[in-house]
Amino acid sequence: RRRELLEQIGVRHALIHAEVDETPRPGEAPAAYVERLARAKAEAGLAAAGGSGIVLGADTTVVADGLILGKPADRADGLALLERLSGREHEVLSAVALATAGRTEARVQVSRVRFRATTADERAAYWATGEPADKAGGYAVQGRAAMFIERLDGSYSGVMGLPLYETCELLRAFGVEVL
User: Fold this and answer.
1) C-alpha closest to that of 81 among 98, 96, 102, 65
2) Residue 153 appears among annotated catalytic residues
3) What's the pTM?
């Protein structure tokens, strides 16, 4: 998804795989967590690239009742996540960071998403599609879960995984032409 979003704004890029521990720290606020991961991914990617160039890292998390809702561990967890979001509003925090030698900057974007009330059968049918299995909060806004979303206040691309406004602002701050 992030690759498609970068292509949408005309940013040429190459993918770098960098391992980062995504375990939340005790007492870590969701915004601090998502920013820390975006920074860590950008810096790990920069190290993997030999320390040169500009590397983007991003992370997105879903938050309900102040709790970080990660990717579902299994079917039961996925259904529980979807039930927790049913008929309620939650936040999606999406962070983007850019790193170069000696400089890392990040931005965090917060969106509010309201799910309509869903039935157990709808949640089970959605889980059966396979779509929610590897998604933060157990759903993909750009996929079939769109039928559950009553309202979205914020950044659609941020809920997808990369807030394009903040990404463009950072790229320009680092001297990268966008569009």
Assistant:
1) 65
2) no
3) 0.90
